[in-house]
Amino acid sequence: MRGMGNMQGMMKQMQKMQKKMAEAQEELATQRFEAVAGGGMVKVVVSGQKEVLEVELDPAVIDPDDIEMLQDLIVIATNEAIKKAEETANSTMGQFTKGLNLPGMF
Which of 80, 85, 74 is nearest to 28 (CA)? Predict the structure, then answer.
């Protein structure tokens, strides 16, 4: 029975950490991450949950004879915006998993 006090303390710490993680995830979900390609002619905005929120195209980048270039620019901007969201998620949520070997957690 001697170790029960220590166990209760650990459970309280875990509950506090879970609450902080949930708050951090909620805040992350509200953030927006923007990336551009083609000198700013294509802009993509994603959420902290890696959902595409906006795609803006400069009319000058739309060339019916070169759709592939436009597609490539959209892919580049989208991937960069998602990368920014992932980096922020890793740095934000990583503080909770320091010292724990949980690959691919976020």
Answer: 85
pTM of the model: 0.77
Give the pLDDT confidence of 84-102 residue by residue, as tens digits.
999 999 888 888 777 665 5
Low-confidence ranges of the chain (pLDDT < 50): none
- How open is the CA angle 23-25-30, to the nearest 5 degrees? 100
Task: Give which of 80, 85, 75, 93 is closest to 25, Cα–Cα.
Answer: 93
Q: Which amino acid is at 63?
A: D
What one-character DSSP code corresponds to residue 66? -
